[in-house]
Amino acid sequence: MTTEPLVRLGDATLRGTHADGVFSFKDIPYARAERFGLPEPVVLSGERDARTFGPTAPQGSTRIPGVDLEGIVGPGWIPGDDYLTSNVWTPDPTATGLPVMVFVHGGSFTGGSASTAGYDGSSFARDGVVLVTVNYRLGVLGFGSVPGFPENRGLRDQIAALEWVRDNVSAFGGDPATVTVFGESAGALSVCDLLAVLPPGLVRRAISQSGGGSHLLTPAQAAVTTRAVEEVLGGPVTEADDAALVDALTRVALGRPDLTVDGVRDPLMGLSPIGPVLDGDLFHGQPVDAVAAGAASGVDVLVGHNSDEMNLYLVGLGAALPEVTPEVLAFSVARLHPEPARVVDAYRGAGRGDTPGELLAAIGTDFMFAVPTARVADAHAPHAAGTWRYEFTWRSPAFGGLLGACHGIELPFVFDVLDRVDFGLLGVTPNAETTALATSVHAAWVGFARDGDPGWPRYTPERPAVRRIGPEWTTTEEADGKERAVWNGVR
């Protein structure tokens, strides 16, 4: 049976949907903003149809020939003026005190959306959580360094969304004092950035899935991308329309610009030409340093990465893993470390790979995800709030098993949507093993949001416990192999 429930927000009434015990309300504006301006609160009035998803942020195509990733990257650009919106799933809008989870999507800061099928919040609502997904500005509009305008507009959108949740989530049955912000990939990097700048009390807990707190670009690095975009445009970014900005940034990204400037290496490893900036306003240093100084001392934190993150890029998006040559390996690692030969020798000696492709995948996984994740855990662990850490180890059978525990592979399990969404390339299909794993992973995330406990020991300076999540769940205090010591002092 399906009905159309109503929720009152101030002077507005939202008309949503109700099916199988879950109420959903979609395309709810949380802010409005001029193209390069700061987000401003929005006041709604009258009745609003909240039964379907709305526009998404301007972005390039999310479709790759022969590759289906729509389950985790979304439908792409759906044009419309008001796309700073949220979607809400709740078990009961008349309830009180339900835990709240706010998901920040990934997509390299250039793509993705809150309406992605794989981010359906029904399973969270079924288990007593109010689940919120949010859109934010992407690409040049969200993260381009534009003289005369504020930096980090996409992050400021996320802050505005969290403020909207604080002020309005009780109308959906949620407790504004029990909010968990979580995200994956660019969303996880955003979560770690937010830990450094959010005012106390706006969130109670945070989850970073494949992120880190040391990826801010310097102003000089951000300027490289702005200049490159303007060269493609033939003029200032402020004079180009949205479609032209998307096209120009896409062309720049295809050229894989080297953002190493003034001896500072590209913290995004070439995976995106754009991202949050060390602006001297929101950020006066890398977020991990602010966390170490106590910026998130009142926030429980769960951080983790997947064992084979880079296989998504080196296998799934080009099947290039077997084609990496020793020369490509040496060149690529030299962009990450001043002593590339020492790094390769350390990883080969630790058994992290035999071929150049395998070694590059392991090194890239650690540089971009595993080591920054460990640093955030180490920075947060001495403070009063709890710290937990995981490594997702379940290996996809796709591409003959080469895809492994790649970037994004945990998402279907976290959202527990295997029976409702086709994950195509990722090779995640419902069977006895995957269904049981989804039940367990999802329960751990719900438990953390509800009680501040995912179900395994805390990560502390004395006992750096890491939960390995896969067909078997184990706990180790020796998750970081000796080879990762090559990154000491390197960012």
Automatic annotation (TrEMBL):
Q: Where is the Carboxylesterase type B domain?
A: 5-474
Looking at the Swiss-Prot or TrEMBL record, what is one Pfam family this protein matches? Answer: COesterase
**Tree of life domain:** Bacteria
Which InterPro entries did the record assign? AB_hydrolase_fold (IPR029058), CarbesteraseB (IPR002018), Carboxylesterase_B_AS (IPR019826), Lipase_GDXG_HIS_AS (IPR002168), Type-B_Carboxylest/Lipase (IPR050309)
Carries keyword Hydrolase? Answer: yes
Documented EC number(s): 3.1.1.-
- The yes or no answer to whether the keyword ATP-binding is present is no
A GO molecular function assigned to this protein is:
hydrolase activity
Main EC class of this protein?
hydrolase
Identify the keywords attached in UniProt to this record, alphabetized. Hydrolase
Spell out the family assignment given in the record's similarity comment.
Belongs to the 'GDXG' lipolytic enzyme family. Belongs to the type-B carboxylesterase/lipase family.
PANTHER family from the UniProt entry: CARBOXYLESTERASE (PTHR11559)
Q: What is this protein called?
A: Carboxylic ester hydrolase
Q: Which organism is it from?
A: Umezawaea endophytica
